What does this fold into?
Amino acid sequence: MQDLDANDITDAVIEQMASTPDPRMREIMEAAVRHLHAFAREVKLTPDEWLKGIAFLTAVGQACSPIRQEFILLSDVLGLSRLVNVMHDATGREAAGTETSLLGPFFREQAPKIELGGSIAHASKGPEIVVYGQVTDAEGKGVPHATIDVWQTDAEGLYDLQAHDPSVMEMRGQLRCDEQGRFHFRTLKPLGYSIPMDGPVGAMVRRQNRHGFRPAHIHILITAPGFRDLVTALYFADDAHVDSDTVFGVSTSLVIRESLDLPDAPVPGIPSIRYDFTMSRDTSSGGGRVGSDPSRLVPAG
Ligand code: BEZ
Ligand code: FE
It folds into this structure.
């Protein structure tokens, strides 16, 4: 029998869990209990507040469905997804490459294949832009035939799943770089958008007086044998929310601006973006990244 006070309880729980056979699980659960208890002590959590927290997490779970992952959205707006990705990026690769960004919930497998120079806009209308560049390794050597998946909102700020029937794939495509890793494709200038705000995470964001917007961006996933998958995004400098992304996906090195003055632009006369991507050789045995589950597809929020 133990008479546990507000401090002893932490050690008592850790002692009971000490026989966990999986050492990594033991390490994670011990740290989780220590930090959770320290948090409750720091804010002097009351039973009412504890119950509100439980009700919130229950609502987050209830908002999840095969096409909506409210827990990942919660992780995103709390900066946890960014933190986990940044830590992952610093391990298991031989050299730093292009900075990564969140995959987000709108990635879809098997996007329509487009030829080099083709467009990912079919039905959508808006100002056209061209994105071009080269995919290289850390030494600057082109990665031949790297595969690029690209997806984005249309000029109204909607992903295909929000604007069309789910059978329609629009504003997304897959292309293969040439022998030297060079690529170019045509698209429309995307518009920023709000994360899904109709669930408990949106309610929390509103109560925090946050705007809930992501700045306009183009998602990019590049894969090539022997290299770590590069999940990143290019963010438009002229979007009002570029400095206050609600899910913390923006890095300075990923901020771009289209221009009509690029001497090597492959399609003169159309505002263009040149961006060269650097891939890192993968030295680890694997491990995914936050949000890499395609079942995160989220309908219009
Ligand atoms: C997105 O970029 O599509 C996204 C990322 C995180 C949460 C919601 C949307
Ligand atoms: Fe996005």
